[in-house]
Amino acid sequence: MLDGHLLLGWLSFTIIVYLLSLPGPTTAYFGLTGNEPLSLLPLNSLPEDSVGRAHLKLCDQLKLDKKQRRMCRRDPGMVNILKESVILSALECQHQFRFERWNCTLEGRHRSNILKRGFKETGFLYAISSAGLIHALAKACSASRMERCTCDEAPYLGNREAWQWGGCGDNFKFANKFVKEFLGKRSNKDLRALVDMHNSNVGMKVIKAGLETTCKCHGVSGSCTVRTCWRQLPPFHEIGKQLKQRYETSFKVGSSTNEATGEAEISTGRSQQQQQQQQPLPGSSAQIPRTMDLLHIEDSPSFCKPSKYSPGTAGRKCYKDKNCDAICCGRGHNTQSKEVTGPCQCQVRWCCYVECKQCTQREEVYTCKG
Ligand SMILES: *[C@@H]1O[C@H](CO)[C@@H](O)[C@H](O)[C@H]1NC(C)=O
């Protein structure tokens, strides 16, 4: 039996495609970070080249706040980008946390309870959401899917350089500006709101830091007398990986009150070890640390047992000698021998698809005891 499709296995079973409905005066967030239950998100409900007013209706369906809805309606391409960015962030979160006790369950109740707290996981959700939105939008601009933006504009360099900016760069600048406005500022200035916004900014900064200049040579037989260069975003997996690392080294912060303004500020109660490794935060009076660290306010639960934050790890599939001990929380694991059918002996066919056979193999499956 032949199966002639690209292997996007992990994608197909994760097409649990959720989007949040948002609103409420204090939340100007989007992506995985709304407080309302996730509602089912139909993918590709709008044809790319649709003209007319269909997108206006679709923007209304997203239940954005007033400013966000206006921004969504400005460009017919935007509503699809918003939806795609949520999928991008969700899949990447689940990919990065596939070996952890908290596996980025996005089921409404658990997720919204995590968002009410200031855990490391909360910070990751904010960062991956803003990063996903910038990434999706910057790519959409350079792929001509938007009316209001195109390729990255080249910086003015005059004729001093032997090479030129050209090609079509990902439009980080447009995307960054849009997302900053879209996610906006929270009116309420308590510690949680400050930390959420900081983490959201970390997602944007990680994208900015990852911009790469790519060049192509021209000239007689590739002599490279002329080069054209453009800026490109790194693959989103790279962003996810970096944010996951920042999650692991997330800093716990506390609150202090600014004597002058009476507003909450972030104060860092760093451990000695952390202080030796890291530069102290510039300007202790700054409201938000100007660093790329993710921040959290309180310690996370263990995620071992069912709670309001996760379904627990009973029944979770684990990998022997890799993460069974850690994710089963010392309860041990069951071993089952299963027949697993999947694609195998795949070959690339001219041109351009992959052909696979279906094979059945015996496989040991490990799951955490309850
Ligand atoms: C996360 O783990 C739960 C069991 O604890 C499982 O039901 C769920 O499918 C997992 N989610 C993902 C995205 O792997």
TrEMBL record:
Location (main, coarse): secreted
Compartments it resides in: Secreted, Extracellular space, Extracellular matrix
Domain of life: Eukaryota
Ranges for region Disordered: 258-287
One annotated Gene Ontology cellular component of this protein: extracellular space
GO biological process: animal organ development; canonical Wnt signaling pathway; cell fate commitment; neuron differentiation
Record-level Gene Ontology MF annotations: cytokine activity; frizzled binding
PANTHER family noted in UniProt: PROTEIN WNT-9A, WNT RELATED
Name of this protein: Protein Wnt
Source species: Austrofundulus limnaeus
Gene: wnt9a
